[in-house]
Amino acid sequence: MTDIALQATEPWLRPADRAGRVILEAGGAWTVFAVANLRRLEDPADGRRGVAAIDIGGIDKLDTAGALEIVRLHKQFPDAAIEGGKPEHLALIELVTKGAAAGVVKPQHVGWLLHWLQELGETVMEFFEQTARLLGFFGEVLVTIGGAIRQPRRFRVSSVIAQMHEVWILAMPIVGVLTFLIGVVVAYQGVEQLKAFGAQDFTVEAVSISVLRELGVLLTAIIVAGRSGSAFTAQLGTMQVNLELDAMRTMALNPIEWLVLPRIAALVLSMPLLVFFGNMMGLLGGAMACMIYLDFTLAQFFDRLRDTVFIWHFWTGMIKAPVFAFVIAAVGCYEGLQVRGSAESVGRQTTKSVVESIFFVVVLDALFSIIFLLAGV
I need a surface site. Which of 145, 193, 200, 327 has the fewest CB within 10 A? Predict the structure, then answer.
């Protein structure tokens, strides 16, 4: 290939003297595929820094990649003017120059206190925005529930039963074991602390009231959030990644009605049963500890429990159960619907759903405690 042909197809750059002025002459095809062949000289002006202009009149073809090379060259010689180009080439270089300037983000040097306050403010704003989005989703779920109540045929009983098997029956072993052990721990600690006052017999009340009012329902809710809530998020998130939810919407099927509502209904129905089972196992664990440390019989433990523990201690825990269940299921389903396009997103949203569920459960438990205290129960 001749030199003339090379000049027509490959970009070139060379210094020239014009009446004592150093000019950088550019020519050829400055395109995305051609600029890779451009010889990048560390000093195109051959050691002469007084470059007066960059002449691009020899450029035949110019695209965005070539214009970016011209802009970089101009930054190397900021005092040089760009001249001799075609109007469309000059317009493209001006556009790329503006885009490059807009993309430059100057680093901001801030103190650690300002940086900490900024992060704190962003976290607080994100929390309130997320809470608002969750409340909006709760409202949408409630509207869907109202529609299902008006038209019972839309309610998918078979899906609810299948989900109840997952969130209730299969969760009973882990709930039973943990609440039993918590009952043992509370009884042991109660005996050790009350023994100093000669009041170790009140361990029965300590175990019973703490398990029935707080520990049973709270521990069960945390287990359910980590087990069932995360499963809801992973299931819906995987369906989102596989475009199954988009296919449902294309067929005019509401994912909230078909997927979210059965899961919420199943968990709301199953949670009181799990809490009741957990309470009984917690009391049984406390009774076993009292039999070992206080020489109580099983009959004596439950006789004292019947005489000293009122029915409202039981109902205060049971009232919380369906509320906790609704929040856990709704948060799990909501985060599953927020998955976007990758397995990494599924894991991220699953972790987020567990953290949010436990947070809201603890906050609601504190609110319930205040309400019951004000109500005198």
Answer: 193
DSSP 163-205: HHIIIIITTHHHHHHHHHHHHHHHHHHHHHHHGGGT-GGGHHH
Q: Name residue 15's amino acid.
A: P
48 neighbors 21 (Cβ within 8 angstroms): no
| 233, 338, 361 from 342: Cα distances, Å | 14, 11, 29
The single-letter code of the amino acid at 195 is K
Indicate the helix (H) or strand (E) that contains 336.
helix 311-337
pLDDT tens digits, one per residue of 305-322: 888 888 888 999 999 999
**Chain region(s) in the chain for CATH 3.30.750.24:** 3-103
C-alpha neighbours within 13 Å on the C-beta side of residue 217: 27
Looking at residue 182, its pLDDT comes to: 93
Provide the CA 210 distance to its chain's centre, in angstroms.
33
Q: CA nearest 89: which of 136, 144, 161, 29?
A: 29
pLDDT digits (tens, 9 = 90+) for 83-112: 887 888 888 888 888 776 665 555 566 677
Mean local confidence (pLDDT), 109-127: 83
Q: Tell me the CATH number for domain 3-103.
A: 3.30.750.24
- Summarised one tens digit per residue, pLDDT across range 216-233 is 999 999 999 999 999 999
The Cα 171–Cα 270 span in angstroms is 10
